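Milestone 3.1: sequence recovery, worked example.
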């Protein structure tokens, strides 16, 4: 019992001496300056990295909850012949774990014509009730307009960008020119159809410039003769895990007997997700570099502290203080520095990360600028999502690297020879 108690006393004494060395006034003011630099370097590094990681988390959350709510998670598209058994395909797909539901679509591409103005358009022929089961597009349309997409009504919902471009008003006639395919796949005379504008789709970004919705039967009348009976050009699906879309759509495709293309959201919107992942990876690399630079300051501080306290260390060694405990003195001194930096940086980083959208908005109003334009991106403000895991990761990595940084100067302190130091 006596040996463990002695070790505990020695360990507590090492911590007390390390704290004393840290707080005591040094004869070399430069040591204090380097010590403060190391602490604030760690604090600033953690603050900045926590803000960046929270912003990337926010973009990822907006991608999943907002953008991927108005684009299909997965889709099968007919190649040569239309898909006539879409109900059976959806029923079979729903037996696969992870598939929520499916809905048919007839994709028609055309041009909106208004006087001398032309604009490309992507018409989605849908069944509104079925479409609402897989996408939240109706949440971004004018109130009540989704229900007006009925069979044979020739009603249309246009993206807000198109409406603004041609200065349309609700109730206006919208002329759409649809290219037609003749014999042997050659283009024939285009078909021009008039629709009644009943609503606007306002999501943000490029979708507002090209997106339009009509009823499935209206789209069938516009398309080639191959779809004139009961066929559709594609079936779109919603999954419970959007990041598992590729294997799920392949599983669905294996059960489809006709020749179809398989597609998922990563083909059209995957570049956004990849960009977010790339920035997060770069952030982790920067994390290591920033902490490593701050740790060099810790090494410098402790090396100079060892030189400054040589006589005190020699006296402790002559009084029976073990070399292992001398190492603990300087490890404690360096770790307290790192811990203070983590606390300051963590508190400041959390406060800024949580309030980042409001802070950015304040500076946008103050400087009369807009960082993110809703007409270009799918968000018009900087998102932020603070995760406690990010804070734990940052602090853990910082303390670990800082601990490694203290080993060399602490080991140098333990090798001091009292006879040489006190004999001078």
């Amino acid at each position: 019992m006596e040996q463990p108690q002695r070790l505990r006393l020695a360990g507590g004494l090492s911590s007390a001496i390390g704290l004393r060395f840290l707080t005591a006034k040094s004869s070399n003011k430069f040591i204090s300056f380097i010590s403060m630099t190391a602490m604030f370097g760690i604090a600033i590094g953690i603050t900045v990295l926590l803000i960046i990681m929270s912003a990337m988390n926010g973009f990822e959350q907006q991608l999943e909850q907002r953008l991927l709510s108005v684009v299909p998670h997965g889709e099968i598209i007919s190649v040569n012949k239309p898909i006539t058994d879409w109900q059976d395909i959806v029923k079979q797909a729903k037996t696969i774990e992870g598939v929520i539901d499916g809905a048919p679509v007839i994709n028609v591409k055309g041009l909106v014509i208004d006087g001398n103005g032309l604009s490309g358009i992507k018409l989605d022929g849908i069944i509104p009730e079925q479409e609402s089961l897989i996408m939240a597009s109706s949440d971004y349309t004018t109130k009540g307009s989704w229900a007006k997409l009925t069979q044979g009504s020739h009603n249309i919902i246009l993206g807000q960008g198109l409406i603004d471009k041609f200065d349309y008003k609700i109730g206006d006639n919208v002329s759409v020119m649809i290219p037609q395919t003749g014999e042997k796949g050659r283009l024939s005379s285009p078909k021009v159809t008039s629709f009644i504008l009943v609503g606007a789709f306002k999501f943000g970004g490029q979708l507002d410039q090209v997106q339009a919705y009509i009823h499935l039967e209206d789209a069938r009348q516009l398309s080639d003769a191959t779809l004139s009976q009961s066929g559709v050009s594609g079936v779109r699906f919603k999954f419970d895990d959007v990041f598992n879309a590729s294997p799920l759509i392949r599983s669905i495709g294996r059960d489809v007997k006709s020749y179809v293309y398989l597609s998922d959201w990563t083909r059209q919107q995957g570049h956004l997700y990849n960009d977010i992942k790339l920035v997060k990876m770069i952030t982790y690399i920067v994390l290591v570099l920033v902490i490593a630079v701050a740790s060099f300051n810790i090494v410098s501080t402790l090396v100079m502290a060892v030189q400054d306290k040589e006589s005190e260390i020699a006296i402790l060694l002559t009084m029976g203080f073990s070399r292992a405990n001398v190492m603990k003195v300087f490890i404690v001194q360096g770790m307290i520095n790192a811990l203070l930096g983590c606390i300051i940086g963590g508190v400041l980083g959390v406060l800024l990360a949580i309030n980042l959208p409001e802070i950015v908005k304040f500076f946008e109003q103050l400087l009369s600028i807009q960082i993110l334009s809703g007409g270009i991106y799918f968000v018009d403000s900087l998102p932020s999502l603070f995760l406690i895991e990010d804070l734990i990761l940052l602090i853990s990595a910082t303390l670990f690297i800082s601990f490694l940084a203290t080993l060399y100067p602490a080991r140098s302190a333990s090798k001091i020879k009292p006879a040489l130091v006190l004999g001078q």
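Confidence is low (pLDDT under 50) at residues 1-11. Residues 261 and 276 are 27 Å apart (CA to CA).
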